Amino acid sequence: MRVFSGPAELVAGFCHSDRRDPFPAWRDGRVGPCFNRLVLGALPHAAMAVSSAWYLGVARRDLLQAPPPRGWALRQLAALLAALLFAADGGLASLLRRADLYPDLLADGCALVAWLVHCGAAAALRRSSLGRARGPPALLLPVLLTVPYLVVTLVTYGDARQHLSPAARPVEFARFVLAAARALPLLVYLLAFAFPCVGAAAYTRLPDTGDMVGEDGSGCVSRLFYLWLTPLLLRGRRGELDGPADLYHLPRKLRTAVVWRYFHQCWEARRAGGAASSGRDLWPRPVGRNLLSGTWSSRHQEDPLQLEGDVGLLGVLHAAFGRRYFALGVLKVAVSMLSFAGPLLLSSLVTFMEDAAAPMGWGARCVLGLFGATLLSSLLQNVFAFEVSKVALAARAALVSAVYGKALQVSGCSLAGAALGEVLNLMSTDVDRVVNFFGSFHELWSMPLRFAVTLYLLHLQVGVAFLGGLGVALLLVPLNKVLASRILSNNRCMLGHKDSRVKLMTEVLFGIRVIKFYTWEPHFARKVAGCRERELSHLKAIKYLDAMCVYTWAALPVVISILTFVTYVLLGHQLTAAKVFTTLALVGMLIVPLNAFPWVLNGILEAKVSLERIQRFFRLKNQDLPAYYALVSPEDSETAVLLSRGSFSWQRPDGEEDAAAGSLQLHGLTLRVTKGSLVAVVGKVGCGKSSLLAALTGELNRLSGVVYVAGRESGFGVASQEPWIQNASVRDNILFGRDYDSASYQAVVEACALKDDLSVLPDGDRTEVGENGVTLSGGQKARLALARAAYMDKDIYLLDDPLAAVDADVAEHLMKKCVVELLGGKTRILCTHRVELVGGADMVVLMDNGTIVRTGTPAEVLPLVEAAPKKRKNDHDEKEKDGVEEEQEEEDPGSSHDPCVERDPDPMGAEQKQAGGLAWRVYQTYWVAVGGVLATAILTSLLLMQASRNASDWWLSHWVSQLKNNGSSRTNGSSPGSFSSPHLLLFSPGGLMCPLSSLQTAPSSNGSGDVEFYLAVYGSVAAANTVFTALRAFLFAYGAVCAAKALHDRLLDRVLKATVSFFDTTPMGRILNRFSSDLYAVDDSLPFTLNILLANAVGLLGTLVVIGYALPWVLLLLLPLALLYHRTQRFYRHTSRELKRLCSVTLSPIYSHFSETLTGLGTIRASGHSARFQEELARRLEQNQRCLFLSNAAMQWLSIRLQLIGVAVVTGLGALAVVQHRYGTVDPGLVGLALSYGLSVTDLLCGLVFSFTQTEMQLVSVERTEEYATDLATEPQGAGAQLPPAWPAQGGLEFRGVVLAYRAGLPNALDGVSLAVRPGEKVGVVGRTGSGKSTLFLALFRMVELNQGQILLDGLDISTVGLAQLRSRLAIIPQDPFLFSGSVRENLDPCGRHPDRQLLDVVAQCHLGPVVDRMGGLDAEVGERGKFFSVGQRQLLCLARALLTEAKVLCIDEATASVDQKTDKLLQRTIRERFQDRTVLTIAHRINTVMDCDRVLVMHAGKVAEFDTPAALYPNEPLRLPPAGR
């Protein structure tokens, strides 16, 4: 190298080197010392100093921001320590006073300055906005550049042996120690950079709420090891996860609204025939603030996304998620292939140990390879599992949103054929099964791949003989197909029966009051039990078929191995021990794919069934409003509504016959309504008034004619005949998503006569009204629905008999203040039976039998309708409130509040989440449900199965030992066609007992008799194992079905016996969740995970026994490992348990919202609020998805840690073996056995923790059902005294000092009521809201127990009579008519006690004969909750029920509010005639009803105000309600 003499001499002098080569980079096979000091040492440190100095002046951040990650403190500490070590080294170098150490001093000086500056920079960055994670990458690069300097320095010291002598050269030795010590701060620094220990405050947050976002914003290492989850797990351990608000938000691409919009775009692309990749980013903008915060304003409203056209759902799912999902298949291939690397490397390692002269490098390469393969396999498997779970989560969000969106859009006629329970099941069970497909599909193709590779390795071992065993496996495929198809058909049937059961339970819960009034609990319990029995018969078949699958595939490896050996011998080969063991090990590898394959296939077939069900629902016809309404507007701009020769039907447009075929059709409708007019629609019950309004809103199928509605896009103001009330506060019900405007709001409240009601409610208009408004009376519900419509401020109002449930005064107030004044100027169409109030209408429409028979002014039309005597106006009671409404709850103002928590905004109470670990009682419950003897038998068969498996391994070990002892296994040569090492795949699920040193090829002198003897014994033990396997499989299946039956029966029994207050204060979705999702877990998911848990537990036990027997010292290694496992899984289980509970708790609101939406679908669609409801579902679903996402992430957090511990164990064992091999103190056989079992134990422990956690999660469902089955307050169940069949003979009734409060701490609803009703007397009951009218009935029927006092019926205290006896001797007609799905006959007489002739008589007496005949007689279907009948007709059917009873006491809660005047008169006459000699108590709205009574009871504030004849009370004027002070 040519250099100039001046600088060269200078460099040579400084470096103390040869002038001809003053600065050698490489000398004698190593880096030159001067080059190392200056280029590798001083230069990078100088760069570090410069780059670090750049950040010294960085600005500090706001003190209120989150604290920096703890990694910064470690980095500062490491920098300071490094500076001190370099300073010490420089000090020692200067002590030596040698000229050749000048480069060392320069390098040490540079390093000292660099690390000190770097420490300052780290301190500055820590306090800056850049210190939220790892800081700038430019800081790391110079640090990494210093690593070669350290390595070269250490190698140089190592080569110079004299430095290793502390006695001879203490200073040099000290410098060597300091150089080695410099590795520590460098390592700490790099670790602190890789794992910055970010606190919960430092992760990505939402800009508007500041809440943490899961995974987004975390680095590669954090994602790989789930470090972003650690803050949440710490909070879980501290017990701080109380609700969804405590959890992270979903990553952007998993947010519900984003996924739903993307899915919709893919749907549209498929419909258009294209693909969803049009060059632009299809992932839409992130969800808006109003979704995440749960607020809504009408200004944010967008049109809901519609799923139009007949598009294949599978194709859309493929377009939306297919590319990402199939890309994960690459990871699956890598994981599958790496699973074979472990066994091959183990084999190579054992071969190395057998050869005493093998070089160390070979062993080291094997151990490194083993480490690399197992680590990579663990990481890839983990990434694969988590990514698949994310795709599945996105698919779930899309499908639930799509099912809900479709339900919002499907036409009313199409939806008539689908029951509420069926649609609910689509959203829960079916969507879950389709989502499970994502977990199964990659297994479906990867299992055959692993199977094929294993078969290839078998072929290398035993040649064509493996075909003998394979033949049996192939023969089992058709059997498996038969089993799979049987499972599929049973599954279909089971889902159908499950639908029926959930649908029936929905109706039972809706009609629970009617069921209790009529003591129909036993009948409905039998009906539900019948559905459950049919469901369980198919579940039992599925479980037994599954057990058959498990048994055949579990027995298969044994059959394959024995047949393979027989074939091998028949082909003329000699069996050897090596062949036996290697073949068995390979066959063991087949167990996993063969065992799991039926489950995977089953999951995919289930997904196929569910996908078809969802697809059928998606094929239902949508509402097509543009086609339904006329596009051209009439020439007259004043026309608001125009019907021309319109015919409408509830039948589906496709002409399919359904249960609605006999229902009323509207025909020949011609009507013109001008803008701003008030139109009254009148007519008798069932003439088609409500159907006319449904035709205007587009809910019916238009057969012919023209419909025109001006400005229909803005929607209608709708008040339906059955008030639909949301489970929200009174204010939220009135606002219905609109912004609060104080003036408008107060005007509406005043006009709808709600002011006094709000003053009575505990929290005013903030009071929660419960599901379906259970805490309100009938009149309050009607007025609240009217107020909601009025506040909508629409141009057209459709009011369906809102005046029916209120008394004459309030009806007049509503008509004047609300309909005429507040809504004046709007177009109003009012259906009503209160014809006396419609004198001021612009037009009256008279309907009969589905057509308009007359339109005209009130003067022209009203004389055709028989009217009631109009109540005289009286200024004194003009403002009286509704005094005759149903008061199941309003006497108990806020009956759902405890006195101590009156300010709680949620009186229903959010669903309670159990805290802490599962109580032992839950495990005990399931044990008892299975049955103690049966459970013991299952455990015994499991232990025998494992013992026989271990015995077969021990027998093989014994066989080989005998061969070795006979001196017949001395040679080392392998037979042709086998592997070079016979130790391939030394671990099988059963383990391998034999020492590996004896796994040698047996010579041909081995007697065939010995082989036959050992094979015969082995075959016998294996056969015993298959018998125990079969026993365990079938016993377990039987036990699971027994438990499912027992738990359901207990739950149903308790719920039906629960008090009425439980149903009033518990949302129906919450109860239904127990009967659908939780029972599905008990039926299916729990047995599945419990089966795996038990198999893992006994497998682990057997493995530990075998290891302890073969290599006791391995147990010492397992002790600290066991402690580490225990700590890790406990840390995980705290959070996973809470997350699972939160998953359950956040699932109920989704179901509640869905069932609520389906109930009020007409109102939601007509008023144009579909988009808001879709977004509310997205908000609730988002909360549930957050819980699921974090639950999956926590599972993977645990998985990666357990797998890393396993990697460490195997690598540690291998490294230990190689080191011992160096000193010749190791038995290769024992090492091989230890390695194979070490791997086996890790897998089993992994499986045990997971299956235990999964089982614990599924047991939460048992805990939830058990909570209802044991903790619910039930009605008194005593039979009471035996009564004569004729009791009560007279019907005399006496209240003595009756005091009743709905709950402790609430005011008395009845306060010292004393009165006597003579036998056969007719008593009218009147009074204002909250006066205690309906409470009298509840007390009489003992729906609520008395606090003090007595009620005597024929002189007998009713508290001494059994509930069933008492209620069966009384009759009631409730205000809210309720019918169950089924025939007219089933609704009138569910228990079948009366002949058809009697049923037809009562139907005729209730003036329903023509209607029932038209629909098909007593066998005619009434539809879900009686939807094929009008509300008035339903009330008449409920009256017919009461007429059937032979009760001496009849209670009528204004049961004729929804019928016309003429029918009402006829019914009153019927009641008088039929109940002539019976006692009748009537809560009345209509004045003529009360005037007909013998005496009138006036209630006020829970007391009897007056009780006398109408004539005595009001001699000179019609009946008046008392003023407030009376």
Largest sheet: 6 strands, mixed
Strand content: 5-15%
Strand arrangement, major sheet:
7-8-9-5-10-11
Rg computed from alpha carbons, rounded to a whole number of angstroms? 41 Å
First CA to last CA: what distance? 121 Å
What class do helices, strands and sheet pairing give? alpha/beta
Spans of at least 5 consecutive residues with low confidence:
275-301, 656-660, 868-907, 967-1006, 1519-1526
Number of helical stretches of at least 4 residues: 46
In which range does the helix fraction lie? 55-70%
Per DSSP E runs of 2 or more residues, the count of β-strands stands at 21
Mean pLDDT: 77
Form type: elongated
Write the layout of secondary structure elements.
Layout: H1 5-15, E1 26-27, E2 30-31, H2 33-54, H3 71-96, H4 102-126, H5 140-145, H6 147-159, H7 170-181, H8 183-194, H9 220-225, H10 230-237, H11 256-271, H12 289-293, H13 313-354, H14 360-409, H15 412-415, H16 420-462, H17 466-510, H18 512-517, H19 521-570, H20 577-618, H21 625-628, E3 639-649, E4 666-674, E5 678-682, H22 689-697, E6 701-709, E7 717-719, H23 730-735, H24 742-751, H25 755-760, H26 778-791, E8 796-800, H27 808-822, E9 827-831, E10 843-848, E11 851-856, H28 858-861, H29 920-930, H30 932-965, H31 1008-1057, H32 1060-1065, H33 1068-1110, H34 1114-1159, H35 1161-1166, H36 1170-1222, H37 1228-1271, E12 1293-1300, E13 1310-1317, E14 1322-1327, H38 1333-1340, E15 1348-1353, E16 1356-1357, H39 1363-1368, E17 1370-1373, H40 1384-1388, H41 1396-1405, H42 1409-1415, H43 1431-1444, E18 1449-1453, H44 1461-1474, E19 1479-1483, H45 1487-1491, E20 1495-1500, E21 1503-1508, H46 1510-1513
Parallel strand pairs: 5-9, 5-10, 7-8, 8-9, 14-19, 14-20, 17-18, 18-19
Antiparallel strand pairs: 1-2, 3-4, 3-6, 10-11, 12-13, 12-15, 15-16, 20-21
